[in-house]
């Protein structure tokens, strides 16, 4: 029987790439997101039975609860959660940032990951055999900020705390939790680097990107580890990305 994986934000980009890599190592993948049309197009890229689509708003406790109830009823268990759903707003100085924009990023990137983690841990504790794995999409912004990126940076630093707390609290229940920090993957968000991003000294510079498939492969590596082995943090980025030495 194949293992079951849930990928939030699974309709495109890193989520879809990770889902394809997970299917490639034997997972049945649940692609979750808000855009049902995009999810249907994504599922069509898989072999029959490899993937299913489910609508999900990670910022809604009711939506998250409904999805996990469906997972338990349909599949009986969940072996892997990839907390990938996220958003961002336009980079602006912190004194010009609208509170609504701050909340939009925090609610999706942090609270959404918390709600899904909470539901996954509850299910993983109850299922037999007990346990599972959670992988959080952190970003290199969990390590070092870009200029004018307070909400995104704060949300991703907080993801690191959520990852470590989940890893600690999950030990007694065979639940592993790790984090992947991605730098400039070729997605709608990551491709902004090709057009030039502001550096710490204020100048604009083009930055290299990596193929999104490399990220999917890294997620599958983390997911494919045997029980009892965990990658707590992994950074995947273009080797020439100016992350090391920012500032």
From TrEMBL:
Protein's UniProt keywords contain Oxidoreductase: yes
Record Pfam families: adh_short
Single Gene Ontology MF annotation: oxidoreductase activity
PROSITE patterns per the UniProt record, alphabetical: ADH_SHORT (PS00061)
Family: Belongs to the short-chain dehydrogenases/reductases (SDR) family.
Keyword match Ion transport: no
Domain of life: Bacteria
Identification of the protein by name: SDR family oxidoreductase
Keywords: Oxidoreductase
């Amino acid at each position: 029987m194949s293992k079951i994986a849930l990928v939030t934000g699974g309709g495109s980009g890193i989520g879809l790439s990770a889902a394809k890599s997970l299917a490639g190592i034997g997972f049945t993948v649940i692609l979750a997101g808000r855009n049902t049309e995009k999810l249907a197009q994504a599922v069509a890229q898989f072999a029959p039975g490899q993937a299913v689509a489910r609508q999900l708003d990670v910022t809604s406790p009711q939506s998250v609860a409904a999805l996990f109830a469906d997972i338990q009823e349909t599949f009986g268990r969940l072996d892997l959660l990839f907390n990938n759903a996220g958003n961002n707003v336009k980079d602006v100085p912190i004194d010009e940032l609208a509170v609504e924009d701050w909340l939009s990023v925090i609610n999706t990137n942090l609270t959404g990951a918390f709600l899904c983690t909470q539901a996954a841990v509850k299910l993983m504790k109850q299922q037999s055999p007990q346990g599972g794995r959670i992988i959080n999409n952190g970003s290199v912004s969990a390590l070092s900020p870009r200029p004018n990126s307070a909400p995104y940076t704060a949300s991703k630093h907080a993801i690191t705390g959520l990852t470590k707390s989940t890893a600690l609290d999950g030990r007694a229940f065979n639940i592993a939790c790790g984090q992947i920090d991605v730098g400039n993957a070729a997605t709608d968000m990551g491709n902004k680097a090709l057009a030039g991003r502001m550096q710490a000294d204020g100048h604009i510079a083009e930055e290299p990107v990596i193929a999104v498939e490399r990220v999917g492969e890294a997620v599958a590596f983390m997911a494919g580890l045997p029980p009892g082995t965990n990658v707590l943090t992994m950074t995947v980025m273009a080797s020439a990305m100016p992350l090391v030495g920012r500032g």
